[in-house]
């Protein structure tokens, strides 16, 4: 009866324009039937509301609120059949009203999102029909209220139900496809939810979400000037650290595009980006794709730091730039970026971000403190991979090059970890670490007052020449701390001397580092810095070293490097001739420290062609304690004499008349050696020395050039010899003390 007479009755009321009667009919259908406690009444009410809507025709739009609300209430009915009838009724209502339902879209969407997850297949099937109808209406209309819909979408997008997620993604794809709807403006509102859906267990949903994100990224590339990059930066930072590979890879790809499109707009988020990107650089081949994209992100971000960032005052360290993407030229070269190679600001994530319109001007700030904090944190983390450590050191080097003035404010805090990194297992890491330390030690910014080492505030800011160390009687005994106040060396800054002191301290406390990497580290430093300054300063420091055994070992290491390393060819030539006051000063400085090791002192004299003094030193060897280690070093010196470095020395053996002390010194070494292979080697060499009478020439009466050089050098060799004796006496006392302590320990063990 209801289905046959109701439409006729409603049409009569419409013809009479009797609005009150129409509302009264709808109210009765709603209150007494659709919302009744009896299932059959509810079913009849739903059918009646649908019939009423059909009868109203185009006028149904005037009564949609009254028609829709009771039907939506039935969506929550416990009876699946009633939920199906409610879905069918709403389908008929929407089909008649078409575009008139758009003002009620949010409540319809809310109801449909619940039905999408309904366990009953018939209800789900009916909801899908209604969903398609509603999508058609939205697609063909230009009156969709996107602003009003976004809050609901933002809320529903965090649903964990698979069907609800599928429903949400399908609607996002539809809205993206409508030309008149600019969903990109509201992407920051839903981006986080989209990335969460991307981690769904259903492959189908993940694929749909990938498509949706891909479409958004295409739009971003087409219209970068209208994109709110800043509002989405921290969202990407979070998901770049996701445990799910697909989420992480997708977020990293977005981050790469954001950095390349937005340029310096991304600088304020550098610390967060680095926090996410740096660990990915050490991924293995199982995550090769993520690693490659992260590498591009890292390189692109590094290029955004420019020298102008160092020139701004602390209060005005922001540069005003247009909030527009990079130029077309820079955007056309993503391949160039890919060919190359922070702590996350949590408070920033919880605060709303304001993004200006494209026509406005924005302030771009390089958060150097945050970047350095992240880099420092990664260096302290022993669990990070080699490639990450290398990237961190590259960042530090880049920052010291681009923003040296600001970076030197962080040097005191970075210095200890940079020194510890020298103990890294990887040679590549050590090389990068040395580059950073060398830049710190040589940068002119390190001379600025207030940026010097914290424990050497009295270091003079201006560069002065290295001095020859004072004589032993004049040396300060105030300990290692006073050394940190030594004047800066030429082309170096106040950190150079501090670096040398701490490097030697590290060698002293970590002998394996000295044994395994000592020569490698010093040789690389000689390439990166001034070799003369390095040897001069180390010799100066070792002169005051209290651990005599370490001093002897260190001098032996330095001497081996000096005599054998190709990197020190120029320094050897400088010492070989001693033509300049600087070279003679260097010789005196090295000599005083080399006295910690008698054999290395002789080799230094051989290198500098001070053969008479070498002979005088060897004469003193008779008063020393000759140990196995001592004889081993003499053996090594004999081997060195046969090397190409001492070719000039062997040729001077032909000039017997003018080099008598060279021959005497070599015979002295021969007499020290036991009957060994080294003894045989040196003995055969000396047998080759020609008879002086056979070597007489017309020019034999002229003094040799080497003799002229020696007599003109103005070096007090007597004082140097006395210094050698004092140092050796100290070593003898130290050995006796060590032997005494060892003997006491043995007695205690016996007792």
UniProtKB/TrEMBL annotation:
Keywords noted in UniProt: Endoplasmic reticulum, Endosome, Membrane, Microsome, Repeat
Q: Where in the cell is it found?
A: Endosome membrane; Microsome membrane
Span of domain Vacuolar protein 14 C-terminal Fig4-binding: 511-689
Its GO biological process terms?
phosphatidylinositol biosynthetic process
Q: Which Pfam families match?
A: Vac14_Fab1_bd, Vac14_Fig4_bd
Protein family (similarity comment)? Belongs to the VAC14 family.
- Disordered: where is this region? 314-337, 444-463
Q: What is this protein called?
A: Protein VAC14 homolog
Q: Which domain of life is it from?
A: Eukaryota
Q: Which organism is it from?
A: Mesembrinibis cayennensis
Subunit annotation? Forms pentamers. Component of the PI(3,5)P2 regulatory complex/PAS complex, at least composed of PIKFYVE, FIG4 and VAC14. VAC14 nucleates the assembly of the complex and serves as a scaffold by pentamerizing into a star-shaped structure, which can bind a single copy each of PIKFYVE and FIG4 and coordinates their activities. Interacts with NOS1.
Where is this protein chiefly located? Answer: membrane
Give Gene Ontology CC terms. endosome membrane; PAS complex
Q: Which function does this protein serve?
A: Scaffold protein component of the PI(3,5)P2 regulatory complex which regulates both the synthesis and turnover of phosphatidylinositol 3,5-bisphosphate (PtdIns(3,5)P2). Pentamerizes into a star-shaped structure and nucleates the assembly of the complex. The pentamer binds a single copy each of PIKFYVE and FIG4 and coordinates both PIKfyve kinase activity and FIG4 phosphatase activity, being required to maintain normal levels of phosphatidylinositol 3-phosphate (PtdIns(3)P) and phosphatidylinositol 5-phosphate (PtdIns(5)P).
């Amino acid at each position: 009866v209801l289905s046959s007479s109701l439409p006729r009755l409603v049409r009569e009321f419409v013809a009479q324009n009797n609005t009150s009667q129409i509302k009264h009919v709808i109210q009765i259908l709603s209150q007494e039937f659709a919302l009744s406690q009896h299932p059959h009444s509810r079913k009849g009410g739903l059918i009646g509301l649908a019939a009423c809507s059909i009868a109203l025709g185009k006028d149904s739009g005037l009564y949609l609120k009254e028609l829709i609300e009771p039907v939506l209430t039935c969506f929550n009915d416990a009876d699946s059949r009633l939920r199906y009838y409610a879905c069918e009724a709403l389908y008929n209502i929407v089909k008649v009203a078409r575009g008139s339902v758009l003002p009620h879209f949010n409540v319809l969407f809310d109801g449909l999102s619940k039905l999408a997850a309904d366990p009953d297949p018939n209800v789900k099937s009916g909801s899908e029909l209604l969903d398609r109808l509603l999508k058609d209406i939205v697609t063909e209309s230009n009156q969709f209220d996107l602003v009003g819909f976004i809050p609901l979408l933002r809320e529903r997008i965090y649903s964990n139900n698979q069907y609800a997620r599928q429903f949400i993604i399908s609607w996002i794809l539809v809205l993206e496809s409508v030309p008149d709807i600019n969903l990109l403006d509201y992407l920051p509102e839903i981006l986080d939810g989209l990335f969460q859906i991307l981690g769904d267990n259903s492959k189908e949903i993940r694929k749909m979400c990938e498509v949706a994100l891909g479409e958004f990224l295409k739009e971003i590339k087409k219209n970068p000037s209208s994109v709110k990059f800043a509002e989405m930066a921290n969202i990407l930072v979070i998901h770049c650290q996701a445990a799910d590979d697909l989420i992480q890879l997708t977020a990293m790809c977005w981050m790469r595009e954001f950095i390349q499109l937005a340029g310096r707009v991304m600088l304020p988020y550098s610390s967060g980006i680095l926090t996410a990107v740096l660990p990915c650089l050490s991924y293995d081949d199982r995550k090769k794709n993520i690693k490659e994209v992260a590498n591009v992100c890292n390189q692109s971000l590094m290029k955004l730091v420019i020298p102008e960032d160092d020139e701004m005052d602390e209060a005005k360290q922001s540069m005003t730039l247009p909030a527009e993407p990079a130029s077309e030229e820079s955007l056309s070269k993503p391949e160039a970026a890919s060919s190359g190679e922070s702590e996350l600001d949590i408070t920033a994530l919880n605060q709303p971000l304001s993004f200006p319109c494209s026509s406005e001007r924005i302030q771009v700030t390089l958060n150097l403190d945050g970047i350095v904090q992240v880099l420092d944190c990664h260096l302290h983390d022993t669990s990070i991979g080699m490639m990450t450590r290398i990237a961190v050191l590259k960042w530090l080097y880049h920052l010291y090059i681009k923003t040296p003035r600001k970076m030197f404010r962080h040097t005191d805090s970075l210095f200890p970890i940079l020194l510890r990194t020298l103990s890294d297992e990887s040679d590549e890491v050590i090389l990068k670490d040395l580059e950073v330390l060398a830049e710190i030690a040589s940068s002119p910014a390190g001379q600025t007052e207030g940026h010097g080492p914290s424990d050497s505030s009295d270091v003079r800011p201006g560069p002065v020449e290295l001095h020859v160390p004072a004589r032993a009687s004049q040396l300060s005994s105030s300990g290692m701390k006073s050394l940190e106040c030594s004047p800066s060396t030429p082309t170096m800054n106040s950190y150079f001397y501090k670096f040398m002191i701490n490097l030697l301290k590290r060698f002293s406390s970590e002998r394996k580092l000295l044994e395994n990497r000592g020569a490698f580290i010093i040789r690389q430093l000689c390439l990166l810095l001034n070799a003369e300054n390095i040897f001069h300063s180390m010799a100066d420091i070792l002169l005051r070293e209290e651990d005599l055994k370490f001093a002897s070992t260190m001098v032996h290491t330095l001497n081996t490097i000096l005599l054998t390393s190709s990197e020190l060819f120029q320094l050897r030539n400088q010492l070989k001739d001693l033509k300049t006051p600087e070279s003679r000063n260097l010789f005196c400085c090295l000599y005083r420290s080399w006295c910690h090791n008698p054999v290395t002192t002789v080799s230094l004299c051989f290198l500098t062609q001070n053969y008479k003094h070498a002979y005088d030193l060897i004469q003193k060897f008779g008063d020393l304690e000759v140990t196995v280690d001592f004889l081993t070093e003499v053996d090594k010196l004999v081997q060195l004499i046969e090397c190409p470095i001492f070719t000039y020395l062997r040729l001077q053996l032909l000039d017997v008349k003018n080099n008598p002390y060279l021959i005497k010194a070599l015979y002295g070494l021969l007499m020290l050696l036991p009957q060994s292979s080294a003894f045989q080697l040196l003995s055969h060499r000396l047998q080759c020395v020609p008879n002086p009478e056979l070597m007489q020439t017309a020019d034999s009466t002229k003094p040799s050039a080497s003799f002229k050089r020696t007599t003109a050098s103005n070096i007090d060799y007597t004082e140097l010899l006395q210094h050698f004796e004092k140092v050796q006496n100290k070593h003898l006392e130290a050995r006796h003390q060590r032997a005494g302590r060892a003997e006491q320990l043995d007695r205690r063990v016996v007792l």
